[in-house]
Amino acid sequence: MSQRSITLEIYEIKKEIDDYFSIYFKKPKNFVYHPGDCFDLIITKDTFKEKRIFSFSSSPTERLLQITYRKGISQYKKYLENMTKGDTLELLYFGNQYSFYYEKPLVFFAGGIGITVFKSALQYAIDNKLQPSINLLFINKTDRFPFMNILDEYKKFLNLTIHYYQTSKEGRLTKDKLKEILPSIMDIKYEYYIAGPPLMVDSTSDLLRKFGIDDKTIHTDSFDGYLEETR
Ligand SMILES: Cc1cc2nc3c(=O)[nH]c(=O)nc-3n(C[C@H](O)[C@H](O)[C@H](O)COP(=O)(O)OP(=O)(O)OC[C@H]3O[C@@H](n4cnc5c(N)ncnc54)[C@H](O)[C@@H]3O)c2cc1C
After folding, report:
1. Is this model's pTM higher than 0.70 or not?
2. HSE-up of 106 (CA within 13 Å, CB side)?
3. Which residue lies with its CA nearest to atom 25 of ligand 1?
4. Is 137 in contact with 163 (CB distance < 8 Å)?
5. Which of 105, 151, 215, 218 has its CA at a distance of 20 to 30 angstroms from the CA of residue 185?
6. Cβ of residue 208 lying under 6 Å from some atom of ligand 1
């Protein structure tokens, strides 16, 4: 983990879908990070000073830095939503608890906004011509999946299978449903990555444990601050 404080300048803001927005920043010189790394983003405005953790939704191979967030109700989000091109924010303390084992078969579970981590990891695999077998199970409340077009495009360049799972239609993900979606879970030794709201991360980890999967192969990114399972 690096503890350097770095000033980021906003290059562009883009609406992805519904209440999902991306902010692109100019990449500072010699800035090095890894796919799915997260960092503290500090907003200072008058007497207000707060930080939140964000994951890079861009890949280190890309020209700009990108984060993607869901609109919210906090003061922090209100300030974030009012930012414009040229505004600056402070990035502090970035890194990650795990790496992507691209030499192994991978399963990614994204819960809503958790897709940021995997967008970064998939773009990185494309740009470095890595060809692991990847199954992405994208769990969302509605059929409005952020980055759906980009993810479907990624399939042309990767050995990637995507299953879009809509909880409002299909209910909670259960052991039987997961077995149906990913029958190879019974006999292939995958590395599992789970990112999203804490409730989704915990329930998916529990589900994997029911298959007797070794905890050491389960890597989690729990997006504290999002209280519901998916939205
Ligand atoms: C390792 C890590 C990585 C993370 N990466 C990301 C990331 O890439 N992108 C990201 O967005 N967050 C990420 N987070 C979460 C982030 O740090 C914040 O905690 C999160 O965005 C919530 O922000 P907030 O506290 O300002 O609350 P808000 O966004 O204001 O939300 C507070 C609560 O209110 C709910 N809510 C929001 N709007 C409404 C509404 N209109 N009606 C009813 N309820 C509502 C929210 O779902 C949430 O439960 C990450 C967290 C961690 C720990």
Report:
1. yes
2. 26
3. 225
4. yes
5. 151
6. no
Question: What stretches of 124-168 adopt beta strand conformation (E)?
Answer: 133-140, 159-166
**3: confidence class by pLDDT, cuts 50, 70, 90:** low
Which of 38, 51, 52, 75 is the best mutation target for the ligand 1 pocket, counting ligand atoms within 8 Å of the beta carbon and taking the most? 52
Please give the single-letter amino acid code of residue 128: N
| Domains of the chain (ranges, CATH numbers) | 2-95 (2.40.30.10), 106-222 (3.40.50.80)
Cα angle 140, 109, 50; round to 5: 75
Per-residue pLDDT tens over the stretch 60-93: 999 999 999 999 999 999 999 999 999 999 999 7
Distance 116 CA to ligand 1 centre (A): 13
Contact predicate 196/167, CB 8 Å = no
**Could you report the per-residue pLDDT of 104-158, keeping only the tens digit for each?**
999 999 999 999 999 999 999 999 999 999 999 999 999 999 999 999 999 999 9
How sure is the predictor about 42, in pLDDT bands with cuts at 50, 70 and 90? very high
Sheet of 88-95: strand order equals: 48-55, 38-45, 88-95, 2-17, 20-26, 64-70
Cβ of residue 20 lying under 6 Å from some atom of ligand 1: no
